[in-house]
């Protein structure tokens, strides 16, 4: 007997099949069609499945599609990212981790970052690389345009750039949080080559990282506030918030705001004097 998720999965597949035209799927029009969208046998053929098995799936029968089948259906039905996530959730399968394409910040997103000046704002990808920033972020945290891609990795920089210990009041809490986040991501997808290379590099170059990594703790300072000891304007207290952007998968936008009037004045001075 089918459960609610099987039924929902079948209805979702049927809805997506009806919304996709033969032209969109790259199929010939042929004779006059009696159905809206694609036929069941066409979806099965596009996904390289048996028609009977696909029909059972669409009818909400208690069948369990594999990850490979779900990916094939996602491609056949041309699902977008959210639709694919939804399909995998209904099938109670974990979407395999993908190696993301390099993020190129769009003019619109860069305009948003620039509009936050004199408050620092930047974008990080899923591997904690800074991939976009505004002028204020470069003035407060360092000129990212002069850094190599590895130096723009916030986890690498926390342990390998001595200036971060001087800048961050709670460097230990901040760095332990980064180790915890890295360990959590690594436990979910341990075969990521970029992440493995970063872990090997840090274990070999930083005795502190190596110690904390092998202690396997999940601790650190909570997100949301920073006290910085800036070399030019002195102490700056910041509140910050982070959110996902629909433009790029797993990219995070972080915007900092002054916690008090003195910090606001210092950010203004830093920005205006640059």
From TrEMBL:
Domain HTH cro/C1-type span(s) in chain numbering = 33-87
Gene3D superfamilies attached here? Answer: 3.30.450.180, lambda repressor-like DNA-binding domains
Q: Which PROSITE patterns match?
A: HTH_CROC1 (PS50943)
Q: Which PANTHER family match?
A: BLL4672 PROTEIN-RELATED
Q: Know the name of this protein? A: XRE family transcriptional regulator
Q: Which organism is this entry from?
A: Paenibacillus sabinae T27
InterPro entries membership: Cro/C1-type_HTH, Lambda_DNA-bd_dom_sf, MLTR_LBD
Q: Name one GO molecular function term.
A: DNA binding
